[in-house]
Amino acid sequence: MPGDYTRFTHRPAQGYNSVLMQQGRVQLDSDWNEQADILQRRLRVQALDTFGPCAVPELTTPDAFKLTPLAGPPVDLSIGGGRLYLDGLLVEIFAGEGFSYLSQKYYPDAPAFPITGEAIAYLDLWEREITSIEDPELLEKALGGPDTTTRRQTVWQVKWHALADATCGINLNALFPPSAGRLTTTAMAPPASNDPCILSPSGGYRGLENRLYRVEVHRPGALGTARFKWSRDNASIVSRVDDLAVSGTQTRLTVARIGRDKVLRFSVGDWVEVTDDHRELMGESGEMAQVTDTSEAALTLTLDRTLPTSTGRAFGATATEIRARHTRVRKWDQKAPG
After folding, report:
1. Are 130 and 138 in contact (CB under 8 A)?
2. Alpha helix locations (H) across the chain?
């Protein structure tokens, strides 16, 4: 989930090793976040230089993420507890936690292992952003519940890949090469006016709000098939979904908040995305829809299409299931027809 930030200023090539606060100055989120980025990079680089791309501390947790066959069916593997370093990131299964391949902490619908043939098992690791939507404990209750900060969370998933003649130490970078796709952006000057009575825009952006543009691929594919979504506010206008009801060709969402003010809010005509933890952790996009009605009194948003509640990529059949999956609705600034 994107947070509400102004900008990110960390530039490793500058060699900065800390951020120093001056007295009587305005405090900015970008300064705090740069200090976090400086420290995070230092820890990752130090771990890489010390342990290499992957390591298990033999003296303390030698069986970390060790896979052991379990009695089946179905085919399943236990995952050993402990600490492991991957690409400089620390990942840990804590004492008292017990996971298997089919019951992983961050992999809600792991596909079944093949019954026949050879395969390799590997650890997939990345960071995701957590806001108060996913973790309500981040709300500051003493101040009435504002969402003051967000968190980075290390997410791990044990996965498998069918492979003939599989061996330990296989080059996963060659097996799973990074995407060659690149996104290039540039500022476009407005066309000059050919009307002598109309002055061409020349003052640049004059709004009061900070703009942090975010572009995401919603559906991959070739030109004409792929779909993108974008936001001027880092897609930070989001609300918790407490209930979801389908009626005819529409869906009504009961939400925690319609908006903060006249700008940072959901309005009729907005394109929104409904998603939850399950979809995010499974690498699936949410459901896009357009807002046709809002109710401040009832805290509801009405969408122009039906969303799955019990079949397919369903969000949950009950309000309890919807809340447990941290279902949320996010505003995007796309205005073209869907």
Report:
1. yes
2. 29-51, 172-175, 277-281, 319-324
Quick count: other Cβ atoms within 10 Å of Cβ 298?
A: 11
Report pTM.
0.86
- State the amino acid at position 64 in one-letter form: A
Total Cβ atoms within 10 A of residue 258: 17
- Read out DSSP for 113-160? PPSSS-EEEEEEEEEEEE-TTT-GGGS-GGGTS-----EEEEEEEEEE
Q: Is 7 helix (H, G, I), strand (E, B) or coil?
A: coil
Tokens of 170: 């296989």
Q: At 45, phi and psi to the nearest 5?
A: -65, -40
CA distances from 166 to 77, 111, 171, 270, 320 (A): 18, 19, 11, 50, 43
**Spatial separation of the C-alpha atoms in residues 10 and 17, rounded to whole Å:** 10
Which helix (H) or strand (E) segment holds residue 250: the answer is strand 250-255
Strands 250-255 and 300-303: antiparallel
pLDDT tens string, the chain, 338 residues long: the values are 588 898 899 999 999 999 999 999 999 999 999 999 999 999 999 999 999 999 999 999 999 999 999 987 888 999 999 999 999 999 999 999 999 999 999 999 999 987 788 888 999 999 999 999 999 999 988 888 888 999 999 999 999 998 888 888 788 888 888 887 777 777 777 778 888 888 777 666 667 777 888 999 898 888 888 888 999 889 999 999 999 999 889 999 999 999 888 888 999 999 999 999 999 999 999 999 999 999 999 999 999 999 987 766 788 888 899 999 999 999 999 775 55
